[in-house]
């Protein structure tokens, strides 16, 4: 870590955040996002078949998380952040050029391959660049803004998708999505990166094996890291899996297909606000935050059960809290990592998230013939109540020591 004057440090931080925020915006300004579940349904896929696509995507992400995380610790993270969007672009192109179950599945594999290259790489690059400048405490705020910008981009894409879908159909949405991914890859090349010379000069294969082993050992022997990793996985996986079904929940309210993206926009607006509030919420006492998380889960469940368009506002409010909880949990994990394999450890958290989302997809598919979308959303409020209870229990003061009887 180097010492810089406040003015010089601020300028160096901006050299990181400016391209980072552009990258975050372009990464998620994908017009296919709010309607790809409808694309699959319009081509004859049932809810279980759509869920199987989600499982294929999550499973491919799980298989690639650790190798890509170790790769990010061994080579340039900036290069991987530039390659990732190009793989996603190839997957989106398949969806609208050759719409069929096999191409949807392959597209998910390519999309998640690109996401795996970005997962861990971005968090590690941002944390270590800030630490290099002596500004590691800004991580929660910066990553909260990154998440918020990404979700504002999703919201903007959702708003734009409505007229584009009406005029040009899924083909126009697909072309725009591919172009955005290409621009995102270009933005990735502008990210600064400072890596130790010893890391840069080692032989590639040996470096990869060394950082992979170091990351696995840190998780195995560092209990605080394991706890933080588990919290990231649980808090993020559930709402991350449910988000795939938000368009179907919106469509179940009885609105027209063209109105669905607008209802999805409401939910993503709440998630974006959650990212912006992460820095302030990080200073909230654990017990107070646990209460807020519990209330958010109940609000989300109540909104989903209404079966009305207005209920999506409550769903968005719940997702707002879930998002800021995800950012805070990620920051806790980054602070507890002490070894050289930051991206590898972060990718292990990504595996946990992918495993959790697979469970969400499987449960959703199993319940879909018997329950409404609103009922299933409400069911998934229960795990957040359990997390809130665990946080309350963990933060409770120990009982006073017994002084014995006189």
Spell out the blueprint of helices and strands.
Elements: H1 6-28, H2 36-42, H3 47-74, H4 77-97, H5 101-118, H6 121-132, H7 139-188, H8 197-201, H9 204-221, H10 223-242, H11 246-251, H12 260-276, H13 278-281, H14 286-306, H15 311-336, H16 342-367, H17 373-379, H18 382-395
Helix pairs in contact: 1-7, 3-5, 3-9, 3-16, 4-5, 4-6, 4-7, 6-16, 7-12, 7-15, 9-16, 10-15, 10-16, 12-15, 14-15, 14-17, 14-18
Describe the sheet with the most strands.
none
Determine the mean pLDDT.
81
Per DSSP, the total helix count is 18
State the separation between the terminal residues, measured CA to CA.
58 Å
Question: Which ranges are low-confidence, i.e. pLDDT below 50, for 5 or more consecutive residues?
Answer: 197-202, 396-406
DSSP helix fraction: over 70%
């Amino acid at each position: 870590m180097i010492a810089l004057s406040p003015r010089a440090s601020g300028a160096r931080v901006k050299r990181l955040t400016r391209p980072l925020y552009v990258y975050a915006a372009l990464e998620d300004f994908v017009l296919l996002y709010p309607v790809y579940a409808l694309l699959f349904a319009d081509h004859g896929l049932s809810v279980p078949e759509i869920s199987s696509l989600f499982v294929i995507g999550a499973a491919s992400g799980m298989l690639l998380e650790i190798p890509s995380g170790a790769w990010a610790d061994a080579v340039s993270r900036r290069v991987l952040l530039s390659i990732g969007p190009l793989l996603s672009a190839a997957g989106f192109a398949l969806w609208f050029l050759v719409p069929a179950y096999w191409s949807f599945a392959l597209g998910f594999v390519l999309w998640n391959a690109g996401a795996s290259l970005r997962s861990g790489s971005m968090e590690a690059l941002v944390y270590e660049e800030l630490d290099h400048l002596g500004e590691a405490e800004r991580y929660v705020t910066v990553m909260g803004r990154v998440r918020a910008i990404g979700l504002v981009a999703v919201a903007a894409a959702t708003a734009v998708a409505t007229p584009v879908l009406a005029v040009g159909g899924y083909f126009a949405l697909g072309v725009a999505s591919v172009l955005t991914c290409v621009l995102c890859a270009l933005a990735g090349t502008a990210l600064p990166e400072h890596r130790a010379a010893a890391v840069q000069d080692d032989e590639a294969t040996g470096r990869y094996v060394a950082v992979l082993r170091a990351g696995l050992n840190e998780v195995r022997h560092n209990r605080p890291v394991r706890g933080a990793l588990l919290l990231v996985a649980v808090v993020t996986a559930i709402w991350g899996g449910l988000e795939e079904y938000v368009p179907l929940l919106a469509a179940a309210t009885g609105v027209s297909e063209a109105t669905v993206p607008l209802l999805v926009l409401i939910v993503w607006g709440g998630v974006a606000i959650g990212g912006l509030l992460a820095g302030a919420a990080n200073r909230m006492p654990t017990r107070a935050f646990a209460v807020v998380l519990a209330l958010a889960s109940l609000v989300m469940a109540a909104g989903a059960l209404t079966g009305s368009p207005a209920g999506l506002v409550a769903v968005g409010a719940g997702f707002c809290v879930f998002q800021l909880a995800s950012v805070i949990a990620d920051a806790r994990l980054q602070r507890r990592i002490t070894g050289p394999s930051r991206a590898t450890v972060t990718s292990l958290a990504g595996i946990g998230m992918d495993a959790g989302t697979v469970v969400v997809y499987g449960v959703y598919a199993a319940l879909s013939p018997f329950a409404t979308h609103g009922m299933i959303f409400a069911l998934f409020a229960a795990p957040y109540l359990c997390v809130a209870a665990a946080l309350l229990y963990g933060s409770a003061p120990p009982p006073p020591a017994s002084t014995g009887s006189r």
